[in-house]
Write a structure and sequence with these properties.
Layout (H helix, E strand, L loop, with lengths): L6 H8 L4 H16 L6 H17 L3 H12 L7 H18 L5 H24 L4 H13 L11 H18 L9 H4 L1 H9 L3 H11 L4 H5 L15
Length: 233
C-alpha cells in the first residue's frame, strides 16, 4: 500500500536544517504534486513557504544551482490545471519575501526567479504556444511580478523579471517556433512601461522591449514554413 504524503509535515521537512531531509522532502513533493488534480490557494502558499526556506537553507553554489533547477522542475509534474495556480503561489511568495532576502542570499533567489521564468516559457513552447495558455501566463505575469502599481510587489523583483524576460524567452525557443504570439508575450512589459508610476521601471521595461533579439521573432521562420520543406529536387 502506497504511503500518503501529508503536506503539513512536508513543509517542515522542506525547511529542515539538514540537506538530506530537504532533498527527501523535494522528492516526496514531486510525488505529491503529480498525484493531485486541484489545490487551494492557501495550500500552495504553505508549500511555497516551505520551498522558499528550502532555498534559503541551501548554502553552496552548486547545491543552490541544482536546487533552483529542481524547484523549477516541479512545474513539469503538475497536472495542467494546477500549473497556473502553482506559479501564482510562487510569484506571490517571492513578492512577499523579497525585501527580507539579505545580500548574501540574493544571488540564489535571482537564479530561482530566472529558472522559473525560463520554465514558464519552455512550458508554452512544449504546448505549442497554445493561445489560451499564453494568455493565462501573460495575465499572471501582469497581475503579480510585473503589476505596475501594486505596492506589495518590490521594484527589485520587477527589475529582475524585466532583465531576464527576453533572455529566457530567447533561450526557451531558439528555433523561433512562434512569431505570431510574440506580441502577446510582450504585453506584460508594455503594460509596465505604460502604467508604472516609477520612471526607472518604465525605462527598464522600454529597454527590454527594444532588445534586438525581438527582431528574430518578427522575421519569417523559414525552417518552420511547410512550403519550404520536402522540396528536394
Amino acid at each position: 500500500m502506497t504511503s500518503v504524503v501529508k503536506p503539513a509535515p512536508l513543509v517542515k521537512e522542506l525547511a529542515a536544517n539538514d540537506r538530506p531531509t530537504r532533498d527527501k522532502a523535494i522528492a516526496s513533493l514531486r510525488t505529491y504534486l503529480s498525484g493531485r488534480r486541484k489545490f487551494d490557494e492557501l495550500e500552495l502558499l504553505k508549500l511555497w513557504k516551505g520551498l522558499f526556506f528550502c532555498m534559503w537553507m541551501s548554502d553552496r553554489p552548486r547545491t543552490q544551482q541544482r536546487l533552483a533547477f529542481d524547484l523549477a522542475g516541479l512545474v513539469e509534474v503538475l497536472p495542467s490545471e494546477s500549473v497556473v495556480p502553482f506559479l501564482e503561489a510562487f510569484w506571490k511568495t517571492m513578492a512577499r519575501e523579497w525585501n527580507g532576502i539579505d545580500v548574501l542570499r540574493m544571488d540564489k533567489f535571482l537564479l530561482l526567479v530566472r529558472s522559473y521564468t525560463y520554465t514558464t516559457f519552455k512550458l508554452l513552447v512544449q504546448r505549442g504556444w497554445d493561445e489560451e495558455g499564453v494568455k493565462e501566463i501573460t495575465d499572471l505575469l501582469s497581475s503579480v511580478p510585473l503589476h505596475p502599481t501594486d505596492t506589495k510587489i518590490p521594484n527589485g523583483l520587477r527589475y529582475h523579471v524585466i532583465d531576464v524576460y527576453v533572455d529566457e524567452l530567447h533561450r526557451a525557443d531558439p528555433p523561433r517556433t512562434s512569431n505570431t504570439l510574440l506580441e502577446n508575450l510582450l504585453e506584460p512589459l508594455r503594460y509596465l512601461e505604460k502604467e508604472s508610476p516609477t520612471k526607472s521601471v518604465r525605462v527598464r521595461a522600454k529597454e527590454a522591449l527594444a532588445d534586438e533579439r525581438r527582431e528574430d521573432w518578427m522575421c519569417p521562420i523559414e525552417n518552420n514554413d511547410p512550403t519550404t520543406q520536402g522540396n528536394i529536387s
